Amino acid sequence: MKKSLFVLLLIIVGFSASSYAALEDKNVESGLLFLDLPALSIVHHDNNKQITSFTGINVALGISHRQFFQPVKANNWNLHWDIGTVLLLLPYIGIGTDYVWENGWYVGIGTVYIIPEIHAGVYF
Question: What's the pTM?
């Protein structure tokens, strides 16, 4: 248990140290452990270098894509829809909103089908 907490602390410190660049400079997203389905994702930007979506692997052994309805704005709620798979074959869909801070950390709420969920992560 103590090792797990120590590893979690190291991950959080590492992410926070790498998260001081502007949102436009973020290229990777990671959900915090089991708090968000996407575990590690590549961030997609529009022509103005604003975050529009991300795609990657998830903790349920599948793939995830989160698409924002408008480019992500810091210190604001950002609506999105999600699509992906669980165990590589079982599809899921969802909708939600994320509050994203300037340093890249985010928290949000949403649904997977009709099941409510809370999530968190960081862009780095």
Answer: 0.79
